[in-house]
Protein 1
Amino acid sequence: MKVELKNISKSFGENHVLEGVDLTVEPGEVHSLVGENGAGKSTLMNIFTGLLKSDGGEILVDGKAVHYSGPLDAEQHGISFIHQEMNNFAEMSVVDNMFLSKELRTKFGLMDQKTMIKQANHYLGELGSNIDVLAPIGSLTVGNQQMIEIAKSLMTNAKVIIMDEPTAALTGNEIKQLFEVVNKLRAKGVSFIYISHRMEEIFKIADRVTVMRDGVSVATYKVADVAMKQLVHDMVGRDIGSFYPDRNPKIGKVALEAKHLKENGVFDDINFEVHDGEILGFSGLMGAGRTEIMRAIFGIDKLTSGEILLDGKKVSIHTPEQAIRHNIGFLTEDRKDEGLILEDSIYNNIALPSIEGFKKHGLIDDKTIDDFVKMLMKRLTVKAMGADVSAGSLSGGNQQKVVLAKWVGSGARVLILDEPTRGVDVGAKREIYELMNELTDRNVAIIMISSDLPEVLSMSDRIAVVYEGRITGVVDAKGATQDMVMTLATGGTVNATSR
Ligand SMILES: Nc1ncnc2c1ncn2[C@@H]1O[C@H](COP(=O)(O)OP(=O)(O)OP(=O)(O)O)[C@@H](O)[C@H]1O
Ligand SMILES: [Mg+2]
């Protein structure tokens, strides 16, 4: 199926989000859509799938104009959208999620569980997956949840599948598996619109790429004919040099030490230390327990046993408030549920946790806080009409930047960052790395969980690798390789363990 979006425009009040966007997708093509956070990618796809109404322009399917009254119409045209944030009911089974509001019934009007299970298995089987369809969906890895989303698309007989940052929470093998499925379906004539901030993926999977900037489609290329540098330039409107800034750390004394931390059934015998001015990377596969370790240190979850020392002194932390009082900050990976108050303004989201810090320095005048919020929004290129708009109206990547800004300003001296650049565009990533460097120059100790291996290797001073709830090694980042980290992350051993 061929689809054409022509001259699409859309405004939210004064905010002109799309101003004449064109996009053509051929049958069996993987077409990548790239652009900075807030460029309008998700909005364009919301219009394409009937979730939003455009202000102007047209949508052609196989040359014929289509008008939808809602998302179900798009589905009937064979268009399926896998969203940036998956919305599943965690306690419900895979099969119940797959057939939610599409339940099959027997001729007596009863739920036809048997047929639903059979079909669920059939579609998952087509993707080469053998997920247990009776398991609660929340118990699956994000990669498997993604597979289920694709199976759901196949169930609706989709000819065009839109994926909005599908790999943001996937690691190595899961991405490989996803790409295999994409290639398999492409060979059958299914097209994909593939949105991603990971440049290297575009070169691996896409046939063509369209760049959006500030609501306009600026260029379309064949991937084989374009250099990454060109794409980045088109996206951000300038060259950004190398992705990673140099790190010249001045590492001081131990800031935080974890001793024999244990949470029953989750992790065991976790020992590490992070020094003033150091970035300690935490690598590992999804589900290895990295986030859980940090949640326990921050007082969200309860430790079964073990000790946490700050500046060599034992501390007891049972709630996040206590952690914050000890000057520990935690940027959670789950920006929607834990990181942001979506209804509240950007201003309040950034400023509230910092007001304590300002008070400590005797600064509580509004002007200082205003300047501070403005500075962070500018540094992190938060794209918004102003500081007073609600955080919930921001694009995914811009929400992430606001959560980061909130913790950067909080005056924490041990800062835990869980996937700090997930979903963030290339230009802003570079800014985040520079901010991390500035923080460590000010002696802040940073623990950075990241599934992005090049990021872990480039930005960490040392890397702790977690496998099934245990640290399998701590290596110096200098001299560490992707292979080394992957080996440790899958339970193997390497002999370059440091300190
Ligand atoms: N419901 C809404 N109300 C007001 N503004 C909105 C709404 N949805 C999106 N916007 C604005 O539209 C712009 C484009 O957002 P969109 O989500 O399409 O960006 P994106 O390119 O998908 O970014 P990201 O890479 O961060 O996901 C942003 O400035 C955003 O604040
Ligand atoms: Mg988006």
Protein 2
Amino acid sequence: MTVLLPARRLLLVHAHPDDESINNGATMARYAAEGAHVTLVTCTLGERGEVIPPELRHLAGAALGAHRRGELSAALRELGVADLRLLGGAGRYGDSGMMGIPDNEDPACFWQADLDEAARSLVEVILGVRPQVLVTYDDDGGYGHPDHIQAHRVAMRAVELAAEQGHRIEKVYWNRVPRSVAEAAFARLQDDLPSLPFAKSASLADVPGVVDDERITTAVDGSAHAAAKAAAMRAHATQIDVAEPYFALSNELAQPLFTTEYYELVRGRAQPGETDLFAGIATGETS
Ligand SMILES: [Zn+2]
């Protein structure tokens, strides 16, 4: 059976529920609103995440994973995104926890996954959806979390395997934040901090994917979808406190909520001054 999908197809590969909304919420909402097909692959259910609301702190392990799956569905409704895939099926890969803890050795965790097996699961999705554009993290996973590093490795391996099997993804992007943008946002944050519900500010080092501005190839202005992004982040209530235009994770350190999202193209050809992930791609044909 041939399923006819919209002409523009975007695939995002993320480690845990909440990463999609924090990193790409505005981008996802924008492309979904424009009629592109947006597919999210989430690799784990985040069973080892720290829970913020006291009334939910009893949740751990599989119960937390199930709860976060519900949060993820609610977030995607806010973003207008319908196509969610859990890599290998729900619960196939467990959250590995922060780098360096004994949980990293759990054979069921994503960090211990066989790379090619995990990549083949992603290739199935790629061959079904045939996206022109894939978004994931850099090789450090943005900030060194094992599941983010593994998501990167699986995504990049799947791009290769899918090409061997007849679908070449035209553009691959890594999530980025330009250093100048991050610095300016943190400067504003210092001024705003007294009026925020967060006692302290995070630092630039807490923001994943910050690089020198020259490396940024693409800026996607999602400011028209800022409310959807904030609502999606709020849906991840176990993980995120939102006070627009800021948010905090379980460490309660305020950081900027970006509604223009930035990318570095690592496969394919970037157009000068790109503001569209599909720039330069002929999307008239779906075959
Ligand atoms: Zn994550």
Protein 3
Amino acid sequence: MTSSPQINAQRLLQRIADFASIGATQAGGVNRQALSVEDRAARRLLAELAFARGFNVYQDAIANLFISRAGRDPSLPPVLIGSHLDSQPTGGRFDGALGTLSAFEVLEALQDAGVVTERSVEMVSWTNEEGSRFSPGCMGSMAFVGVGDIAGWRDTRGTDGTRLGDELAATLKALPEAKMQPVGHAVSSFVEVHIEQGPVLERAGIPIGLVTSVQGTRWLEVSFIGEAAHAGTTPLEFRKDPMAAAVAAIAQLQLVVMPADPMARLTVGRMSVEPSSVNVIPSKVTFTIDIRHPSKELLSSIEARIDAECRTSAKRHMVDVLIEKRFDLAPGKFDTTVVDVIDSACERLCVPNMKIVSGAFHDALFVSRVAPTAMIFVPCRDGISHNEAEFVTSENIETGAKVLLETALSLARGAMTSYFPSARRPRHLPMSKRAVRKARS
Ligand SMILES: [Zn+2]
């Protein structure tokens, strides 16, 4: 007997609490870093829940975990939904887990109601989205779309000194019941629910964000190189002080970049000083700059501005400067058809929503390279994320899951198969040496 599928909010809230207990921290957050013992425990719990419901469970060589509920026509590529289960070392209980467990709730709701979808509905928990233990982040989704280099990543060392290849093998081995499948398969579309990780939705009092695009990110490393000298005996005209140059450049950039453009983001997050002694003028000051913008052209103009300001400051302070690009992720646009499907789902459910640009990058950005993709954002309190205090209201959790269910039904329903008659298969192109270096840095 079939009935209209319903999200079981109590069950979803309990699942979120259950998973938050795996790697729980004293302050109410989660430390469940990628491929750790805690990550393995979370994967095991999810797989056990899936087996109990009779779903198919499989994983690939980078430990992406898939759970599939079969549709009527197995020849059609499935609708994919999901997110990630790994966390930052002092992460919150919703970043990633919300989207992953909402996706599982959708599968359960379909199963409870006995609904037969045309396409299979499949959920995924991507491996190492956060990149906090092993760099880079989004390894699972990168590998899935063929821009990752699993062989090259194996020798990557984690922040705890472990080797990725060893931790990956142990993670795969910890779930022997899950069938292995090749990395990357055709999917008809992908939808990821995620907390906004910013204040826009909460401030607007709107429960759902339709994510239309993800801003681009570039990471630069700037080194000012001067000359170590005695702090007490070296007069101003003899100083080649890289700290003076660095603070002047940073202050100038803070004055000009963000105030001129509300979409621009510029962050100096890490700084190191050599030799780092109280009474020595430093020989070298190195710092990182993270810049973000939805426009590739404007990202480039910010980068040019950084270059110019750093060179001007270096000249003024008689030091050298070296600027290296460490990471470059182009802005991404999500598929307008999928955004429209989510929009219609909200309309049918009478859920207020707004279009929004994602400030953070997500697995969905990579998946959008091979399949029509979009994201559903749910507000989090005060926009706080990557923080143990991360919080989402029960009401918003339920709304996000309902919109995901309605969206997945549309995308998987027979009448909707005409959306994406021929899903593109991921192309596994060999990675250039430069791309590998970039991915590893
Ligand atoms: Zn996340």
